[in-house]
Amino acid sequence: MSKRKSQPAPSWLEDSVYEPKRQHSVDLVKQSVDTLVSQRKQGSKVQISLATIVATSKQLDPTGTGVAHTTILENAEAYAYYKKYRTTASKAVKRRNQRVSIDMSEPDSAQDPAFAKRRQSYMTWRRAELVDELLRVRTAHECADL
Predict the structure, then answer these.
(1) Percentage of the chain lying above the pLDDT 70 cut
(2) CA separation for the pair 102, 94 (Å, rounded)
(3) Any residues with CB less than 8 A from the CB of 7 and at least 6 apart, and which?
(4) Number of domains in the chain
(5) Are residues 67 and 123 in the same domain?
(6) Does 37 reside within a domain?
(7) Do residue 84 and residue 22 come from a single domain?
(8) Where in the sequence is the domain holding 134, given as residue range(s)?
(9) Mean pLDDT along residues 86-115
(10) What percent of the chain clears pLDDT 90, i.e. is strictly above it?
(11) Does 2 map to a domain?
């Protein structure tokens, strides 16, 4: 298969078609975010996320089309505005940090070449194989404690 190289659009098309569409998308995203921000200020628990912006933009758009989440992600100005007010990212980061809060210090055996070789071997295993091995080891450990 050969890939066609895309050529830039003619300037008249850029100015008369693409730029107005881009600006319309930015305006809809800003209106949607502003609406969601005002709802939050009034005590609503609504999240400001891509999904809520898409849904709100459909309600605000006179044509009922709204904007797609990919439009927000690919339009730098719209994405920057969304990012400024989004509420979902901070919670996701907090959850991720809570999961990583386990002690991740290197064990003393990390310097052992056999440990490194065993670790490298485990890195090639599939998730299901690792889970099975973990369960086998834990079961053996629990039986040894009895």
Answers:
(1) 79
(2) 14
(3) none
(4) 2
(5) no
(6) yes
(7) yes
(8) 109-145
(9) 63
(10) 42
(11) no
User: Average of pLDDT values for 95-116?
Assistant: 64
Residue 8 has pLDDT above 60, yes or no: yes
- Residue range 6-14: mean pLDDT, rounded: 75
**Can you state the percent helix, strand and coil of the chain, rounding each to 5?**
70, 0, 30
Is residue 86 located within the same domain as residue 125? no
Contact 46, 39 (CB under 8 A): yes
Q: Which amino acid is residue 76, in one-letter code?
A: A
Residues 38, 43, 46: CA angle, nearest 5 degrees: 70
pLDDT at residue 5, as a whole number: 62
Judgement on whether residues 91 and 123 belong to the same structural domain of the protein? no
The residue whose two tokens read 């003619």 is: 10
- Tokens standing for residue 50: 């891509």
Tell me the two tokens of residue 124. 């090639």
Residues 20, 89 within the same domain: yes
